Amino acid sequence: MYLAINPIAFSIGAIDVRWYGIVLGTAALIALMIAIQEGKRFNIIPDFFMDFLLVAIPSAIVGARAYYVIFKWDDYKNNLWEVFMIWHGGIAIYGGLIGSIIGVIFYVRAKGYDFWRIVDLAAPGLIVGQMIGRWGNFMNQEAHGGPVDESVLRNTLHLPNFIVNQMNIEGIFYHPTFLYESIWTFIGFIVLIVLRRRPFVKAGEIFIGYFIWYSIGRFFIEGLRTDSLAFSGPSWLASLMDGLWSPMKLLFDSGELDEGNVRVSQLLSVLIILAAIVIIYYRRSLVPPTALYSDPIVSTKAPVLVTDNDSEAEATLVEIEPPVSVMPDEIERPLKE
């Protein structure tokens, strides 16, 4: 007998509280804690990251929904109210990332910080949030791959019963792609944690590295899914995507598409990886020296956390003044001996 987990954790009157929401809330909280902890190393107050999250989450929701609706416009054009009913499903993680980045750009600039420095601090928390958030898909029995034999899940992958049972949907077992992505992002978290302590890492490269790592995994995992957003592209493009994904065929069959021949997330993953490589090359080779990740982070507007390491004095807030320009003739020259 196979038992699926009830997606509703509990009810308060007529309001159902779903495991999906609890998992996503937990993911956001842990991501915030990781960012706050790293921010302390650079004397950035916790309130900054709390406000950061309040901007990033709504921006991500809007972006995730807009991304999905754009590629599924035929399903919404005759019922525009459905666009706003996100509880009916229909969001895309890449859209969420795009939306959150746009919101964060405005927030960070308003606080007087450099964008690359702040998103570097947020990247490890972001990838952990995705790792945890995918278990919300597990609770809902969604974002899975194509059909697979039960023996593959139990005997080949050696998955525990509660995962195998949850992947039994109406008598058919499916690839737990949520699990594959969760494992991939966990490994990515370890990679980012190690990289951000390396002395050669430039500002922005932890965030860019996150996109490279996530996009590689998403490209190959996306090919297993059956709910991918897709479009009908030229045959050469479809063949290119299939060719890049072909190493996975040694292990699994690709998921079938209801429409189209090019998966949007796969194409976007490839474009992101290429763009990320170009950005790293440009910032390392063609522009003035870029700050290192370990360099101090300074804002002309935001207060910073200053502590006295030699005493038990409480932390105080200090407002950073903008740098003052000094003319060369105003600099006091040292006396010659």
Automatic annotation (TrEMBL):
A 1,2-diacyl-sn-glycero-3-phospho-(1'-sn-glycerol) binds at R134. Keywords: Cell membrane, Glycosyltransferase, Lipoprotein, Membrane, Transferase, Transmembrane, Transmembrane helix. It is found in: Cell membrane. Its main location: membrane. One of its GO terms (cellular component) is plasma membrane. One of its GO terms (biological process) is lipoprotein biosynthetic process. Its EC number is 2.5.1.145. PANTHER family: PHOSPHATIDYLGLYCEROL--PROLIPOPROTEIN DIACYLGLYCERYL TRANSFERASE, PROLIPOPROTEIN DIACYLGLYCERYL TRANSFERASE. This is Phosphatidylglycerol--prolipoprotein diacylglyceryl transferase. It comes from Paenibacillus psychroresistens. The lineage of its organism: Bacteria, Bacillati, Bacillota, Bacilli, Bacillales.
